[in-house]
Design a protein that fits this description.
This protein has eleven helices and no strands. It is an all-alpha fold and 274 residues long. Residues 30-97, 114-180, 202-269 form the DUF1206 domain.
């Protein structure tokens, strides 16, 4: 038992040393800048969907494909892959060693949130690396394919419905974070107000609305038992575009994505490490 405790303490000390190193913190800031670039490109692609001028899918994968098509895009994608990989490590360390000063309930909630963020950052990092290596085709249809696979499983319709509820909950959480500014104490060190915080309010709220829309598409697929009615970000934005005044609503969503991208630059200057 003593040996196990010694190994655990040594691992925790090693994790703490990594978290406190200046090189690691610099890489975290680089990762947040890269995350901001992805969202700025998402904003641009959303505008293209609104006004009908893009061949790229309006999704995070589409944003990475857009980078790949630019001069020196491959090099930039590798930088983004490294940056997002660092964000993955950051959130994994937070999930394992972080939030020790909080009570048990809050600690578990924040650890779960950090683990979920690590999965998102890891998926983006892998996608950026694959596209940089020339192995990242269009992601179109992947959401429908995944929904179809899930739908064909035992109780698949229920599973898709549960997934829809989970995505909607994520959306509502982001909306609440944006409206109440709860993200400030979680994301930022020593900052409580200002233009950067206002960008975060708009950005988180916008992302939340889009997540809710994606969840509703998934829910409709579950109710109708039709995977083709599901979809990801690109489908959600196109659904929004097809509504009355949808073009202008989608332009507002693009503005929200741009605000979140700029907020990420601000976040990169003041990241909070627990």
């Amino acid at each position: 038992m003593t040996n196990r405790n010694g190994v655990a303490d040594a691992a925790e000390n090693a994790g703490r040393n990594v978290q406190q190193s200046s090189a690691y913190r610099w890489l975290v800031s680089l990762g947040l800048v890269c995350y901001g670039i992805v969202h700025l490109l998402l904003a641009w692609l959303a505008l293209q969907v609104a006004f009908g001028g893009s061949s790229q899918e309006a999704s995070q994968s589409g944003a990475l494909q857009e980078i790949a098509s630019q001069p020196f895009g491959g090099i930039l994608l590798w930088v983004i892959a490294v940056g997002l990989g660092t964000l993955t490590i950051w959130q994994l360390l937070e999930a394992i060693f972080g939030f020790r000063s909080e009570d048990k309930g809050e600690r578990l909630r924040h650890k779960a949130a950090a683990a979920a963020k690590a999965v998102v950052y890891a998926a983006l990092a892998v996608s950026a690396g694959r596209i940089a290596a020339g192995d990242g085709g269009s992601s179109g249809g992947k959401e429908e394919s995944a929904t179809s696979t899930l739908m064909s499983a035992p109780a698949g319709q229920i599973l898709v419905g549960v997934a829809a509820v989970a995505v909607i909950v994520v959306g509502v959480v982001n909306i609440v974070k944006g409206v109440t500014s709860k993200f400030v104490e979680r994301d930022l060190e020593g900052v409580h107000s200002g233009a950067g915080v206002n960008l975060g309010r708009v950005g988180y709220s916008t992302k939340g609305v889009v997540f809710v829309l994606i969840g509703l598409l998934l829910g409709w697929a579950a109710i109708s038992h039709d995977p083709q009615k599901s979809g990801g970000l690109d489908d959600a934005l196109k659904t929004l575009r097809d509504q009355p005044f949808g073009m202008w609503l989608l332009a507002l969503v693009a503005l929200g994505f741009a605000c979140f991208g700029l907020y990420c630059f601000y976040w990169a200057r003041h990241p909070k490490h627990s």
